[in-house]
Amino acid sequence: MLKTTFRFLWRNRFVSGINIFGLAAGMCSCLLIYMFVENELSYDQHHSKKDRIFRLVSEMKLGGEEDKMGLSSYMLSPTLKKDYPEIEESVRLMSVNKQTVWIDQKPFQFEDNFMTDPGFFRIFDYEFVEGDPKTALAEPGTAVINEDVARTLFGTTTGVLGKTIQYARLPYKVTGVVKEEKNNSHLYFNTLLSISSLNPVMINQLSNDWFYMAQTNYVLLKKESDIPGFQAKLDQLRDTYIVPWLKTVNSEGAIRFKAQPITEIHLDKEYKAGYSRTGNASYIYIFSIVAIFILVIACINYLNLATATSSKRAKEIGVRKTAGADRGMLFRQFILESMVTTGFAILLAMILLVCLMPLFNSLTDKSLHIPFSMPFLSLIVFLLLFIGTVAGSYPAFYLSGMQAVQVLKSQNSPGTGANRLRKGLVALQFFISVSFILGTIVVFAQMHFMKHTNLGFAKDQLLVVSVPVADSSFVNRFEVVKSELKQHPAILKIAGSGSIPGKFSGMLLHAIEEPGKQRIEKGIDIMTISYDFLDIMDMKLVKGRNFSKEFKSDDTAAFLVNETAVRSYGWKDPFTCTLANGFGYNGKVIGVVKDFHYASLHQPISPLVMMLDNRISGNLLVKIKAGKEKEAMNHVEKVWGQYSHKYPMEAFFLDETFEKLYRNEDKMMQIFAYFSILSIIISCLGLYALVTFSLEQRVKEIGIRKVLGAGLPDIFMVIGKDFLLLVGLASLLAFPVAGYGLYHWLQDFANRISLEWWMFAGSLVTVFLVAILTLISRILPAASANPVVSLRTE
Q1: What is the DSSP letter of 388?
Q2: HEC assignment per residue over 670-691
Q3: Contact at 8 Å (CB) between 124 and 174?
Q4: Does 731 fall in a domain?
Q5: Residue 468 falls inside a structural domain
Q6: What is the reported pTM?
Q7: How many domains does the chain have?
Q8: pLDDT tens-digit profile of 682-722?
Q9: 292 and 428 Cβ atoms separated by less than 8 Å
Q10: Pairwise CA distance, residues 527 & 633, whole Å
């Protein structure tokens, strides 16, 4: 039976090759997406106490508006640990942003640095190379670093305990080295510093302000049975501590803390501004559906090819039945052929998997590898059995059920009864293909819109130089640095700012007083800017004036706001409004800036307050003449070296920041494009199979039509029109289904395109062109054949 199987596959190697390639492509796609989904779902699963670890998130209400944040109050962890015995451990995690570290006067820069409590390693699982996790962060001025940092700073991962690393203001003693994180975690750190190292003034400020959200809090419960009642305890803490505090500070705000399981953090998009590497649950669903659809298309191809070539096997089946073979024996033979074909397809799929892995990793920003774990191997076995059995069952039933008398009649060709099923399956293939093509067009259009829409400011040719706040020799010499930079003809304008569009600027509580109305409090997004900021960004004032050196009070008693703030707060005359905040600014609104997108287009424009800071308080902005980037950069580096003697210069162009904001969508567009191409290829193979079957049934008809004078266009229309109608029907059915899904995907963007007719027309034209080319490639040889050959038996 096995010998017969291999003989048949070899004799029909063209059809077998199409079957094997189609199945291999489908299974390779399925395995790639399985690894992606499994990777996304594995975040934080490696922690041994994961079922008892929670992040405390905040839901704040100020002025009737609610903000949901992954951050929470500084005093939350110690208060919970002190008052609630069901909590085994509670820690805070506070970002200290990018840091420069000096070793022997040589600077090194690292991101992902945090301050935390000593109990951090009692909650989370990290393997120590050196040091004691119980005491590593117990003292002020201590630090735990990962292996990569240790190698970079000291050239080794061992023997570094007790060594000193010098930060901008304080030295820290290395008390631990942890292995690099190989498991997926929502939290990644290079350095952990003891939180007791904080400045006492800062600690006092954080300890007396429950609304100061600058850290994440994590808790570890003693027992899983404590989980249901824990939320009630959080509400109790709010009533005990926060409600009375709100009264003392005369605030009408409200806050509620909620416990979020650690395993849900990575795919969460509800709570913003947490220190976590987040994914997107929508992509998991989308890619899972894509994997299923690609596999379905491949299985349909196998089924269609098996039944379309049935006429070639008719006499074989009749002879074998005449010789005594029963239906069960034939059924097993055809199932074995299906299993062997699927086995070869799996081998090819694994080869494709190895070849395509680097490309897929590049598209998804992952470092996936073939796991060869029990779940992965189980999936391969499942695919072998499922596809081999299910995809091969119908052809096996169909072929083994042929009657010997019928199939041995020379003029009868079996298979016409299954024609409707085959056409329906091909229609399903093109239904899926059209959906993929439409999805690719819509994603591309949305990406084009985001990258080319008017943001309300000029981001081109704008160099951003990051200036460490601790670099006082540079920060406090803004006017001198500006004068030096302007000496080069390639540099057009200079400005400074605390934050830049495209990066979260921060939110600050403001007390707002408007004549005739009650004082209210609002959490408002903030930016600190220099006098020249609006000019260098080409931002427009719609009312009022800009900050000016002629008004000394602008330093701390003046605000610029955007149009959205005026609309949102219902200010009839914004220049009569007074704002005050915890940064020491207290004064009037002096100007209204035309709305601009200072955040991603995923988000709507929110109210924004801009305050004056005429130092270089984070970023030096340099407008460069087009075509003179290299000369300008060289001059900026020269000036940097003159005034900053400790910190290396770090610079980037502002338009690069906005490119990074849409990296996920960019990757999704590319993945959709690849899968669209793959689905079209496999679907065309299915169409090719159905056309092949139809031509085998109509060989003599074509011959007669040619004898009667029919030309190639006539034969193409007779044979191809039914298939083109099939493709058209599949497209029309796909449009509402795919359009519905894409409409909901677009809802993730506050600024988005609309689904327009040309997107649907484009996908329809694309699929029709591909279908016509496929039909021509098969019908043309048949229509060009000598009719004498096809009619000679007559």
Answers
A1: I
A2: HHHHHHHHHHHHHHHHHHHHHH
A3: no
A4: no
A5: yes
A6: 0.79
A7: 2
A8: 877 777 777 776 776 677 777 777 777 777 777 777 777 87
A9: no
A10: 26
